[in-house]
Design goal:
globular, four-stranded antiparallel β-sheet, 126 residues
Length: 126
């Protein structure tokens, strides 16, 4: 499985961006949980959001709840991250990931994911 993330860019605080991540290769993408993580300079990788194979059970990191929405389109092998009300502290490289994860309680653990995209940079200015 190869993951290709896109949609990053520069935006002012309060603005919005939508990230996309397309999976390719021999995939049965509906059997994978899909997630977004982010990493800011000098900081550890942080869980942002994840969604189950059928689009159920989305989960979010505390810092983005109520502002970000994760969704997926299995027919297009794509996961999206709609980011609203962006803040300067959202500035980071955003990575998509895929993994066969049996329970939502494991979504936030990066080690659970088998495949990672290359990252897309989001910069939010004040």
């Amino acid at each position: 499985v190869q993951l290709q993330a896109s949609g990053g860019g520069s935006v002012q605080a309060g603005g919005s961006l939508r990230l996309s991540c397309v999976a390719s290769g021999p995939t049965f993408i509906s059997s994978y949980a899909l997630a977004w993580f982010r990493q800011a300079p000098g900081k550890e990788r942080e869980f942002v959001a994840a969604i189950g194979g059928s689009g159920s059970r989305p989960d979010y990191g505390d810092s983005v709840k109520g502002r970000f929405t994760i969704s997926r389109d299995n027919a297009k092998n794509t996961v999206y991250l709609q980011m609203n009300s962006l803040k300067p502290e959202d500035t980071a490289v955003y990575y998509c990931a895929a993994g066969r994860i049996s329970s939502v309680i494991y979504y936030l653990r990066a080690i659970e994911y088998d495949y990672w995209g290359q990252g897309t940079l989001v910069t939010v200015s004040s």
